[in-house]
Amino acid sequence: MSATTAGPATTTRNDGLSRLTFGGILRSEWIKLRSLRSTGWCYLITVVMTVGLALLVAALLPVADGGEAGDTGRSIAVSAATAGVRFGELVVAVLGALMITGEYGTGMIRSTFAAVPKRIPALVGKILVFGVVTFIVGLVSVAISFLLAVLLLGARNVHTDPGNIHVLLPLVGAAGYLALIGMMSLAIGAIIRNSAGGIAASLGTILVLPLIFTLLGSLTNQKWVLNIGQFLPSSAGTPLYTFVPAGPTPPLVQSGFIQLDALWGGLVLAAWVVVPFVLASVLVRNRDA
């Protein structure tokens, strides 16, 4: 009788095949983003409302009898083009929170983390894709709004030069503001992991906190209360899309009141993205999906 000796089982290592590269993570998040019906509707609403409000403001904004030109004309054009930013920030804040909380609600997040065991790269990819797409949508919205507003204002004898750097910067800043607000909301959603809670926390940070600090400042007449309010996301981000004429930069503190410029406002708003994102990264790494 001959004995048959079983050799060692041949195993094929597929560990590397089951793990996405960072480029693959970005492509995966892009597919997720564009496959959601809510994404298209939210971005469409942002574009329509931004353009619509720009036309409304350009048609109704008071203009001197002889028309306007120079810095006044530029300021009017920028104000009209960015009039819808306050509405757009609410839409992208809701969408940003839903981008992550929706996955927790459906259980898809477990598949995401199974494909990306380290988890944090998945969160980085998600926030980068959402931020870039939101920036592009915001820039397109504001650019269309500006061009149409310039045409309408020109008929009302309000003249501006679209190529002026002091006109272009607020338009780009408006798109950046929308992107940063959306990214902040996504990070908050990753912390809370619940759609209703994430949306409430994001909108509360954008809308409710500024009202509270403004009310407290008015009632107490304390400068420090109003100064703290300047560091809230919506207040810090306002200089990003505000027309500032050429000239010397005013001081950050005037008569005891802090007034952030576009640079400092952008840095403060960026901190509102980084801090929640770091906390979300720690929690995502250590909590069960």
| Strand line-up in the sheet with most strands | 1-2
> Which class best fits the helix and strand makeup?
mainly alpha
Largest sheet: 2 strands, antiparallel
Q: Percent of residues in beta strands?
A: under 5%
Helix content: over 70%
Q: What does the radius of gyration come to?
A: 24 Å
Count of strand segments: 2
| H/I helix tally | 11
Spell out the helices and strands N to C: HHHHHHHHHHEEH
User: Quick check: average pLDDT?
Assistant: 87
Report, as a whole number of angstroms, the end-to-end distance.
56 Å
Number of domains: 1
Low-confidence stretches: 1-18
Tell me, what's the shape?
globular
Quick structural overview:
The chain is mainly α. It contains eleven helices and two strands.
Describe it for me?
With 289 residues, the protein is mostly helical. 72% of the residues lie in helices and 1% in strands. It has helices at residues 22-35, 37-60, 70-81, 85-106, 108-115, 120-155, 165-192, 195-220, 223-229, 233-237, 262-286, and strands at 253-254, 257-258. It has a two-stranded antiparallel sheet. The longest helix has 36 residues, at 120-155. Mean pLDDT is 87; it is low at 1-18.
